[in-house]
Design brief:
Layout (H helix, E strand, L loop, with lengths): L1 H7 L3 H4 L14 H6 L3 E6 L4 E6 L2 E7 L2 E2 L8 E10 L16 E5 L6 E5 L4 E6 L9 E5 L8 E3 L3 E4 H7 L8 E5 L1
Parallel strand pairs: 1-12, 4-10, 9-11
Antiparallel strand pairs: 1-2, 2-3, 5-8, 5-12, 6-7, 8-9
């Protein structure tokens, strides 16, 4: 499973390709920001929680994984800049460079292992001033046992079912606050 995990957490910086297949704009438009002004995502690094707030009310909270100390999740305020399916490629081995089409999901109980098509893997591109706008995402992870841990290259990682729940609710242009 660790080999699969190392493949899964590979991001745009490893493959030199954008990690989202949606439109890659560094900044949401003024119209998108205005339309999403009632939405906010707050990521609390120390609590390893993501809070989805709409019209000032907490809608949902999720457990998340964050960046490791050498590659921390960026702190600050910004916006959701894109939404799309995540594109991951093998970074080593005989399939190097090929797109991963299926992922095996390991649950926290370890009792249930299922195959999930990559069409179910979603991600939200985030932009925080002062950081590379194409490097950091909120995305699904194939191993939910790693949620609550500091193991990514700065991305915020969620369980697949949680991302599938959050993804349709959030709009490009929503505010994001990442706090220590």
């Amino acid at each position: 499973m660790s080999y699969l995990l190392s493949l899964f957490v590979a991001s745009a910086t490893l493959t030199n390709q954008p990690a989202l297949s949606s439109t890659l704009s560094a900044m949401p438009t003024k119209a998108q920001i205005k339309e999403a002004r009632h939405q906010k995502i707050v990521v609390d690094i120390s609590k390893r929680r993501l809070y989805f707030v709409e019209y000032g009310m907490l809608v949902k909270k999720y457990r998340v994984g964050v960046g490791k100390p050498k590659t921390p999740t960026p702190l600050g305020e910004g916006f959701i800049r894109s939404k799309g399916r995540m594109v991951f490629r093998y970074v080593k081995g005989p399939n190097k460079g090929k797109m991963i089409k299926w992922v095996t999901v390991k649950t926290s109980s370890g009792a249930r292992v299922i195959k999930v098509p990559y069409s179910k893997i979603r991600g939200l591109g985030i932009i925080i001033p002062g950081y590379n706008p194409y490097q950091f995402y909120i995305h699904s992870t194939s191993d939910e046992t790693t949620v609550d841990q500091e193991i990514s290259r700065g991305c915020v990682r969620m369980r697949i079912p949680d991302m599938l729940e959050l993804f349709p609710l959030i709009k490009v242009g929503a505010k994001i606050v990442i706090q220590p």
